[in-house]
Amino acid sequence: MRVKICGLRSRAEVRAAVTAGASYGGLVFFPRSPRHLPLGDARWIVQAMPDGFTRVALTVNASNENLDRIVETIPLDMLQLHGAETPERVAEIRARYGLPVMKAIGVAEEQDLAVLPDYARVADQILIDARAPKDAALPGGNGVSFDWRLLSGRRWSVPWMLAGGLTPSNVAEAILTTGASQVDVSSGVEIAPGYKDPRLIAAFTAAALAAGGGGPRGSALDGSGVAV
Ligand SMILES: O=C(O)c1ccccc1N[C@@H]1O[C@H](COP(=O)(O)O)[C@@H](O)[C@H]1O
After folding, report:
1. What interface predicted TM-score (ipTM) does this complex get?
2. Taking 50 as the threshold, does the pLDDT of residue 221 lie above it?
3. Where are the annotated coiled coils located (predicted)?
4. Cα-atom radius of gyration of the chain, to the nearest Å?
C-alpha cells in the first residue's frame, strides 16, 4: 500500500507526510487552486523531501513553457497531469521530460472508464479520481468521491491510484471495495482549503496502510501497483 499526500505547501506538511509513512508528495502548480505553490517556495519545500519519497508535480493543461520552468527549477520524480490532456499530449510530455507521468481520469459513471486503456498505453500510472462537479472551479481537489464499486474486480496494464473525497474515515472502505494498492488525498486531510493537518495526515496514512496490509514506502514504478 502506498499513500500520496497532495497539495503540500510547507516543510512542516512534508515532514508530517514523511513521518506518517506516505510514499508520494504532491506539489500543485495551478494558480486557481488554494494549494498552488509559487516555484520559489516549491524549491525550498522539495528540499525537505528525503530520498525514496516520490516528488510529484501536479499540473493542469500546462504549456511546454510552464512545464519547462517547473522541471528546470525543482528536482522531480513524476508529473501528474490533471487536465484534459489527450493521450498524444501525455506521450509528448513523457518523451519531452523523461519523467514518469501519472494521468488523472475523472470518473462519475462506468462509461468514464472507457478511455482508461488509451491512457494506460502512454502513461506510467493512472490516477482514478472523481469527475469534478459541473460548477467546480477545480478539476480535482474538490473532496468529491464516486461509486467505488465501479472499480471492483477491474484490472489495467499499468499501476493505478485511487483519489477523490478520501478521508481518514472512509479510506479503508475505499481500499477494500476497489482493491486499490495506492491512494491519494488532498482536501480530506485539511482543516481549511490549502492547510493540511498533521494529525489528519497521520490518521489517513495509518488507516490506508492498515487496510492495505502495510507494505514498504517507495514508488510504484516497479509495477507493483497493478490491480490484481
Ligand atoms: O488539490 C488541488 O488543488 C487540485 C487542483 C487541480 C487538480 C487536482 C487537484 N488535486 C487532486 O485531486 C484529487 C482529489 O482530491 P481530494 O482528495 O478529493 O481533495 C487528488 O488526486 C489531488 O491530487
Report:
1. 0.98
2. no
3. none
4. 16
